[in-house]
Design goal:
alpha+beta; globular; 4 strands; 48% helix; 163 residues; 4-stranded mixed beta sheet
Length: 163
């Protein structure tokens, strides 16, 4: 375990701090998707932030709330990337997704991926519903997984596996 901690520290030194990925905390599909990403993020390269939680807004620099309500946004050196382009950028940061990277950058994949992403984003509340009925709070053990200050990843796995 010490080697893994050392490796995480070296990766952070080399590649800088984790990048912020914003998501809609009122959306069950979004919460389940970010819980999965959190579990795939073995080196803590992505910091998940619920943009619907007012306490997180001061941390989001040059952030477009209207855009965030239509797609997830990933903070990059060149600004915020959204939707499928954010996913492609994340895949480069998460070793467990590296097998997907060559396919994500094939010619013609980006327009297809963007179209699919837009349909999911547009219908996200229809797919699994909203979290304003206390469902999400009850199924994540009362924690907000968007804060990355979680004591156990197992809480997320349990919340992500239930429907």
């Amino acid at each position: 375990m010490r080697i893994f901690s050392w490796l995480k520290m070296k990766i952070a030194e080399r590649f800088g701090p984790a990048r912020i990925l914003t998501f809609d905390g009122h959306c069950r599909l979004c919460r389940k998707g970010t819980a999965l990403l959190h579990n795939l993020d073995i080196f803590d390269r992505i910091e998940l932030v619920d943009f619907t939680d007012e306490k997180n807004i001061p941390r989001l620099k040059n952030f477009d709330i209207a855009r965030a309500q239509t797609e997830m946004l990933l903070e990059t050196e060149s600004g915020w990337k959204g939707g499928f382009n954010a996913f492609k950028e994340m895949a480069l940061s998460l070793p467990l997704l590296w097998l997907l990277v060559p396919f994500l950058y094939l010619p013609g994949i980006t327009p297809i991926g963007e179209a699919i992403y837009r349909q999911f984003a547009k219908n996200r509340y229809l797919l699994l519903g909203r979290c304003d009925d206390s469902y999400c709070q009850a199924h994540t053990g009362g924690t907000e997984h968007g804060d990355k200050e979680i004591s156990k990843k197992n809480e997320l796995v349990d919340g992500a596996s239930e429907t």
